[in-house]
Predict the structure of Thiamine-monophosphate kinase.
Amino acid sequence: MSEFDLIGRYFAALGPERPDVALGVGDDCALLEIPAGQALAVSIDTLSAGVHFFPDCDPEHIGHKSLAVGLSDLAAMGAEPAWATLALTLPAADEDWIRAFATGFERLASAHGMRLVGGDTTRGPLSVAVQVHGLVPTGAAIRRSGARPGDAVFVSGTLGDAGLALRRMLAGESVAPELRRRLECPEPRVELGQRLRGVASAMIDLSDGLAGDLGHILRASAVGAVLELDRLPLAHQVADVVAATDDWSLPLASGDDYELCFCVPPAHIPNVERLAEALGLPLTRVGWIRASAGLDLRRPDGGRLTQPARGYDHFPVADDRAD
């Protein structure tokens, strides 16, 4: 296939039709109409072979994850998904690979009403960059800077599943299918994010680990926090590793969870409990916000855990300061 055959066959009509797309794939630019009273939320992520996924990963899973990480960012702002653009770098125009990739991307895009409106294809080492665009009522976006002392800290789902899958795959060990799916096909908490508008004071998605990502909220809000480690929601496989090794890095610093961490004023805690029941999704209170800076990690025995390794950083520097 030529580049233009590839685009026309697999990407020109990807995702559902939307009335706010005046012009999509096929011209020099897309033309998009932002509805009155809505702010535009925009995020971009790049996934590279050998860094974000194994080179032999199922291309359908790569298509899914390349969009899921951006949808998770929109969820963290309480935004509704709208449009995406895709820059796809391929070593060759392998039609079977491209078809599977497009299938994974299309399935997730359609599930969230998102239309692919443009992008680029080029030859080179395998890499995928996706820019997502979402809509949120003006003034309603949930930012990192709103946490206040006394707020409860919640997380969705379970923590450390993807990190355990990656650890075992790198060691050549067998991986339970449900753990591998958490690594390769994360489910962004889009509906949860939208329904937390007006409830959560601050929010972030957990891409680099709870300790590091919560640290971003603490710095932006100029507050500190206490986490009670025995409250962390863990799948039994992760809980078994922690119990056997006393290694808390899986739930605190391994990353790729793509759950939401959010802070809630005490008056809104009953709303979170009702929301968990309505969505059928665990929303677990794991700590609270305090005025004094820093992150205090309290062990089940009442002692304190030394700050774990920070979350994943593409360009780490030597720095022993605690968050």
Remarks:
- The CA atoms of residues 168 and 174 lie 7 Å apart.
- The chain has two domains: 3-137, 144-298.
- The longest strand covers residues 38-48.
- The two ends are 50 Å apart (CA to CA).
